Amino acid sequence: AFRDAKITCLEFDDAIHGLRTSSMHCFEGPEWQHLKRGRESFAWGPVIKSDPLGRCGAALIYGLQMAILKAAQVGQSLVGEDEPTRALSSSAVRVESSYLIDLRALETNHVKDFTFVHGYIEPVLVILHEREPTWTGRISSKHHTCMISAFSISMTLKQHPVIWSAANLPHDAYQILSVPPPIGGVLVVCANSIHYHSQSTSCSLALNNFSSQPDGSPEIPKINFHVELDAAKATWLSNDIVMFSTKTGEMLLLTVVYDGRTVRRLDLMKSKASVISSVSCSYTSCAYIPFHI
């Protein structure tokens, strides 16, 4: 993706052992000027995510416009199986069509993050957003302003109903992680707490004394050491264990305790220490690959 609203889909071609462009999409120019709503500059360019089964992709452009990009071929997807003998030049997977979702019309303002989740027949897009912005100096009067909304994306009908949501999340929530199957759901990462939410259950874990609960809600479990997760990088090691690399270089392991039917609780433990990372990912037997800037 490129500023301000250009998207290019690339694929690896076995015939040439290199990348080639399969489709390009541009939401700029006079016909798309209304999407900017009078603004001339934006803090960041498009943010793109893909459905786990590769049925579509989503790009957040101009802050509050979500472009849904549908995979073209029947039986194919944006994330295909490994077929080393098949030449992609003869059977390419490309984006067929796209349509826009106006998040402002859905009262989904101040988008912080979004992701696709596992375990649904149709693609489900979960968006982390803030209803009324606040900041640290005003949390005594306005706090827990974030929420998540799950939209079921019907690419044929171009409809996107809300199928579930969760409100009263901390104002410092900044990231959501899609939990791999068979668990499903999402983890909401905040500076002082972690929250799990799905269509049927939810649980939370406090990370330090700065964590707070909404008025009238029961107290959430708390770990026996102090840690902060603002600016942390995360990667899944298995379907129930995610590793965090904190801003101090400390490595933490979060376990999603799942009994086969529902998520019971979240457990966090210290692991090792490393350099301060800008990216973390997992690859086969390697647990952690830090990139230090």
From TrEMBL:
Domain of life per record: Eukaryota
Please name the Pfam families in this protein's record.
Answer: Beta-prop_RSE1_1st
State the name under which the record lists this protein. Answer: RSE1/DDB1/CPSF1 first beta-propeller domain-containing protein
Which species is the source of this protein? Aegilops tauschii subsp. strangulata (Goatgrass)
Q: Enumerate the spans annotated as RSE1/DDB1/CPSF1 first beta-propeller domain.
A: 45-268
Q: Give the InterPro entries listed for this entry.
A: Beta-prop_RSE1/DDB1/CPSF1_1st, RSE1/DDB1/CFT1, WD40/YVTN_repeat-like_dom_sf
